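Reply to dn_fold:

You asked what the input looked like. This is it:
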Amino acid sequence: MNSTLILIQCRDKIGLVSQIAKVIVSYNLNIDAMHQYVDEGEFLFFARFECSGPATDSGIIRDELLKHLPEQAIVKVNPPSPKKLAILVTKEYHCLGDILTRNFFHNTDAEVCCVIGNHTDLKSFTERFSLPFYYIPHQERSKEDFESEILNTLSPHQPDYLVLAKFMQILSTDFVSRYPNRIINIHHSFLPAFAGGRPYHQAFVRGVKLIGATAHFVTESLDDGPIITQQTITIDHAYTVAEMVRAGQEVEKTVLNKAIGLVTGDKVFVSGNKTIVFE
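and this is what came back:
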């Protein structure tokens, strides 16, 4: 038996699920799992179907589904897998270390194709995994020049997603527009609280009793893109900033890994500035 994955995003209308199911069944496919959601405010329908049955041309199924769906529907049948990831880093190793370890043991539906760093601190570590590391400094050069070199470096690798694993650089609107909803960032706070720089210091001053991490898609607005997943842990008044950072780093790894798994597993849809996540 072959597996078939079908992803659908379109305007909502009565009878959509029935029409989709009829098309799927007509190709002798069995629906093993189905998730659906209607954004009533935007009148949008989202669905993910996992099917099994005989091998069938993905393009034929897609075209047949489009005949029964509202105009401008987005349909993907058996999107490419595994996804290729390019990782962007600065100096912190905890998120990169977790990603490369999982990649080495083929623990995800993704493959790391390269690592780009604006410092050389993580070069030797990356190369121990037999992966290319590109050093692209940002100091004493324009953002345009810096980002242009990154784009040129990424071009031959053709990554499906960019992962900002503590990259700590704000990307321009032009750069982000090249990878719409394809740049995943890990932010070390439970957004929307403490956006921007030094969130642990902000949290310490505020005396919070929860700290967390947020994985989100990058948009032109700083730390304001569609949220993929979040997690918090409890702390108390005795925590220093350094202790908060250490505790938070463990959460960051967990949250980023989960986000990568959801996105590369084709379980995340974007609707405006929020996500629909089918776990």
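The CA atoms of residues 1 and 258 lie 29 Å apart.
Hope that clears it up.
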